[in-house]
Amino acid sequence: MKNILTCAVILVAALCLTSGVYAQNVVESYGDAGSIDWSAQVVRATGIAITGGVGGRPGQIRAAEMDALRQILATVKGMRLNSETTMENFMLSSDVVRTQVEGVVRNFRRVGDPVYMSNGDIEVTVEMALQGPGKIFDIAIPQPIGIPPTPISGTPSSTEVYSGLIVDARGLGVRPAIAPNIYSESGDEIFGSRYIDREWAIKHGMVSYAKDPAKARADERISPNPMFIKAMKASGPNRTDIIVSNQNALTLNKVTENLKFLQECRVILIVD
Fold it and tell me: Quick check: 44 pLDDT over 80?
């Protein structure tokens, strides 16, 4: 009895710890069985197979995996590509893109062991990374045009050199996307896919999303000396783009070293 209670306590503690870590990430649910972890840059889905069918238990597990594959594809389609387009619309624009995405989604991996339900059903959880060559980011992030942002006139309040950018966009209804933009309140583009280092963006994502400012400051993506600014509002039909003050935009735009870290996508967006 004592051993059973000890095991139960350990299990509960482990579940709480996992839930706590997971709760710190920016996670969106899609339908009943899919989700995207924008912080970890991973898509997850759960597939279910009812009892019976051909092939016994192995066949049932395979059926659950196929259901999870459908859930992952549906989740990817629901992702916002930018302020105006979803991945589903992007896929509809080209048979080549659709084929690429459907091929990538098949390269999921199973997470943990199958769960055997009391009614005989089997549940399988799978996940797929978004970043890396040949993955979703590689398909979706556009080729940069290589033209740096237009210089903004004025005198910056600081000429300090920063190593990255943290934008606090909490309370503004900002939604995560694969390729968000940052603009000044005058409409100047400060950060976007037009002049990024695409290879870096494919490997790490154009931006990282976080909930906790302290955790964001400690992220090696933007350390050791990030610039921390407050966003003014969300922009675009999908509410994925961010508006910052003209003064903050000027500070970022006027220092060459700052433009370099923007090109390298050393940006973290803090959202609700």
Answer: yes
